[in-house]
C-alpha cells in the first residue's frame, strides 16, 4: 500500500517537473536565439549549453553550439610538444573543416622521423590533407 502511494506521489510530481524544465528550455532557446541573431555568439553559447543539458534529445541547441564553435570553413590550430631541453620534438596541426553542417577533424603530426596525416582518426595521405583542408 505504501509503495502504491509513493509511486502515485512520484508520478504526480513528474509532469510538473517536466513542464517546468520545458518552460526553462524554451526560455533559454528563445533568449539564446535572439543573442545569436544579433551576432552575440559568445553570450549565446552558455545558454545553448544549458538548454542542451536540459534536453539532450533535441538536436537544435547542439547544432547551434556547433555553428558557434566551428563556423563554416576551416579553422586551424597548431601545437608544439617540446622535450625537457626545450627543443620542439613534435608539431601537431589540427584543422577542423565544416561544410554543410558536416564537421571533420584533420590532423598532421610532424616528427623528426616523418609526418602522419589523419581524418577523424583514420590514416590519410598528404594529398588528401592538401585537397580536403583548403577553403
Describe this structure in words.
This protein folds into two domains: 16-69; 73-132, no CATH class. It has helices at residues 2-37, 41-54, 59-69, 126-132, and strands at 73-82, 88-99, 102-111, 114-119, 122-124. A hairpin with a 5-residue loop joins strand 1 (73-82) and strand 2 (88-99). Residues 1-17 have low confidence and may be disordered. Strands 1-2-3-4-5 form a five-stranded antiparallel beta sheet. The chain is 50% helix and 30% strand. It has 135 residues and is an alpha+beta fold. The longest helix is centred in the first third of the chain and has 36 residues, at 2-37.
Portion in strands: 25-35%
Q: How many strand units?
A: 5
Strand order of the largest sheet: 1-2-3-4-5
**How far is it from the N-terminal to the C-terminal residue, by CA?**
67 Å
- What's the Cα radius of gyration? 23 Å
Q: What are the low-pLDDT stretches, counting only 5+ consecutive residues below 50? A: 1-17
**Multimeric status of the protein:** single chain
User: pLDDT average, as an integer?
Assistant: 86
Shape designation: elongated
Order of helices and strands: HHHEEEEEH
Given helix and strand content, the structural type is: alpha+beta
Number of helices: 4
Largest sheet: 5 strands, antiparallel
